[in-house]
Amino acid sequence: MWIVFQEDLIFITLNNIIMALKGAIVVDTEKCKGCGICESNCPTKTIGISTEVNGKGYPFAYMANPDACTGCTNCATVCPDSVITVYRVKI
Ligand code: SF4
Ligand code: SF4
To answer: Quick check: CB of 31 below 6 Å from ligand 1?
Structure first.
């Protein structure tokens, strides 16, 4: 199996089949405190911080530029509250 990162896509070859993957994140907005650590550690500038607030009065992270996500998982790794889940989507 080979994994190749190119711009905002990940290509995986498995048994001579090439698949292109993109990433997607889901943020538990009620647990997010809007600290922005994920935003500043996203290499593709996918994440923004909302102008709306959650039930606790905090702004929350969201996919401001969803097409750019590679699924690299940086955001989930650095989030101090572990409220981001990263998915890889076949395209
Ligand atoms: S790092 Fe976590 S808590 Fe901070 S804004 Fe991002 S998702 Fe919210
Ligand atoms: S998975 Fe990577 S590219 Fe996607 S939002 Fe998180 S840090 Fe950005």
So the answer is: no
Domain carrying residue 70? 24-86
Position in ligand 2 atom list of the atom nearest CA 72:
2
Which domain CATH number covers 43?
3.30.70.20
Task: Compute the half-sphere exposure of residue 31: CA atoms within 13 Å on the CB side of its CA.
Answer: 10
7 in any annotated domain: no
pLDDT in tens, 19-75: 778 999 999 999 999 999 999 999 999 999 999 999 999 999 999 999 999 999 999
pLDDT of 54 reads 97
37 falls within a domain: yes
71 within 8 A of 24, measured Cβ to Cβ: yes
Q: Is the CB of 83 under 6 A from ligand 1?
A: yes
Protein residue with least CA distance to atom 5, ligand 1: 34
